[in-house]
Each structure stands twice: as structure tokens, then as C-alpha cells.
Amino acid sequence: MTTQKTAIVTGSARGIGAAVAKRLASDGLAVAVLDLDADACADTVKAITDAGGKAIAVGADVSKEESVAAAIEKIVAELGEPTVVVNNAGIIRDNMLFKMTVDDWDSVMAVHLRGAFNVTKAAQKYMVDAGWGRIVNLSSTSALGNRGQANYSAAKAGMQGFTKTLAIELGRFGVTANAIAPGFIETEMTAATAERIGVPFEDFKKAAASQIPVNRTGVPEDIAHTASFFISEGAGFVSGQVVYVAGGPKD
To answer: What is the DSSP string of the chain?
Structure first.
């Protein structure tokens, strides 16, 4: 009898994280739907359980070590020891460098980088003990540089270095680590960006799609499919990779 594996997906109340959580549940994993506010996770959890899957809502601030520790304790008690981590939690505080505040910089670094560090460090011991684990980190095409996103770009580039180091350190224990770098994905975050610059979201998407070889913008499920592959048994020889899921080559 196969023991059900437990996954943690951070930032999974909505958007990419929610899509990943639902996909992993459909793949047969028990899923900890983790976000800053547990109540915000209710819709994702309901979608999973209504479809016959197993999930719980977990509230935690990934940037705080003690909050993550409490979350892990809850997950182990209610779902089982986690051997899959998807570090998706993220925020944006976009601005040109000369307008960007120290708080803008620190907040983005804290959620993306410190958050991924805290969650992965807390969960990796369960992977090592099991002799099997999967870590998937969300980077971005912005890691290559993007106007008005010095903080976000630096954080997402950092996620790639973090991923490659995890692959080196944990590979001998049967743990893989890979990163997904999405391009334009239709989420509340991209909608907020369109609103901030004063462009209707449909026009914003149309302009983006015109620059993408497959001639469309991405949806959260596109990222969920990729995460599913990295977490599958068949991806056990794939580690330390960064895959740009952007509908075609990045200039």
C-alpha cells in the first residue's frame, strides 16, 4: 500500500499557488494550502475536498521562522510529514530605483527569499529522513531584469541560485530541487500591475500576447502542469534546473 505524500504549497489561497495545490491534490497528494491568512485558503481547500482530495488551510507568515515552525507542526499532525514543498509565496512592491524605499526592498526579499529559506529548511529534514523529496521554487522571467522591479528581479534571481544550491546539497538524499520561471500569467498580481499603470487588463494581456511566440498569455494551470512534472516520480533525475514557462524564447 502506497503512503500518501504530503505537499506544502505556499501562497496558495489564489492564483498560481491555488492552481498548483489543486493539481497536486488531483495527482494524489495531501496538500497544505498555506497563505498569510488561513481563512483566505478556504476556496482552494473546498475545491480540493469537493473533488475528493485531501487538504487543510494553514495560516503562516513565511518570512517569520516561528510562524513557519508552528505551521509545519500543524501540517505534520494533521496531514503527515511533508516531502514536497512548492515555494510560491510572493509580493510585489514595484517602483523605479530612485523611488523605491528600503521597506519596498526588504518586504519583497523577506517574503520571496527568506520565506523560501524558512519553509525549505523546516521541511527538508522530513525529506532526508524519507530518502525522497521534491522542492519547486517559483522564480520569474523578471530574474533576467525588468524595469521598475529591482527588488522583485533580484529576489527571483536569488531563487534560482537557492534552487541550484539545494539541488547540490540535497541530491544525495533523494531530494530534487527545480525552479519555474513564469512569464506573463493571468493573475490578480498582473491585473494589479495593469491597474497601476492605467491600462485595461484586456489591453494589457493583448499587448503581452503579441510578444509571446504562442500568441497568448499564460494561465495558472500552465505553471501547475510544470510543477506536477517536477514533483512526479518520473522526474527523479531532473534537478537544479530553471525552466522558463513563458510561451517561447526570452530575448
So the answer is: -PPPPEEEEET-SSHHHHHHHHHHHHTT-EEEEEESSGGGGHHHHHHHHHTT--EEEEE--TT-HHHHHHHHHHHHHHT--EEEEEE-------B-TTT--HHHHHHHHIIIIIHHHHHHHHHHHHHHHHT-EEEEEE--GGGG--TTBHHHHHHHHHHHHHHHHHHHHHGGGTEEEEEEEE-SB-SHHHHHHHHHTT--HHHHHHHHHTTSTTSS-B-HHHHHHHHHHHHSGGGTT--S-EEEESSS---
